[in-house]
Amino acid sequence: MTAGRILHSFPSPAGLPADLAWDGRSLWNFDFGTDIMYQIEPVTGQVIRTFALPAIDGRGLTFDGRNLWYSDRGTNLLYEIDPITGQVIRTLSTPGGDPSGLAWDGRTLWNSDFTTDLIYQIDPVTGQVIQSFATPGDFPIALAWDGRSLYHVNDITGIVFQMEPVRGQIIRSFSAPSARPFGLAFDGRALWNADIGTNTIYQLSLT
Prior knowledge:
CATH topology: Neuraminidase
CATH class: Mainly Beta
CATH architecture: 6 Propeller
């Protein structure tokens, strides 16, 4: 078997899917065209609920076990969002000026930045940067956490990188299903990828 092999796929809820998050039972995805957040049933791809985004230039999304976090490059803020009501709980300033991908590792947030080409580990209470390291390539988009390592993709190569979280060294890499991967999420077994070019959400094998 090969990492990156497609296990399952379905059309995105709208035409321009951005980042993804996994909440333990369902996927979350927001869309550039509609500025709507979608909760999605992962087998059928059916939409469970929707709400409007707090800002309309989003790039990153993750779930911390209770709430969603959303990054917006227009406001340079990270938004903590109640997934039931869609209401903003609080915001944090981003460490760079152009936030993109987000991931949650159980204690801290990880945020990639489109301009600085850095990945930041962030204290979710204070917003302070714990550490940072360079991304493997320019134009970093999405991040995901598998319990031990980060997965990262950029908008140029279409390559998914698995990275160790101390120095950012690359463990392995593989091609995404298509050339415009904009979202990543880990469901405890497989990696999910939203592609803005094909308007498709893919579940990918990691073995």
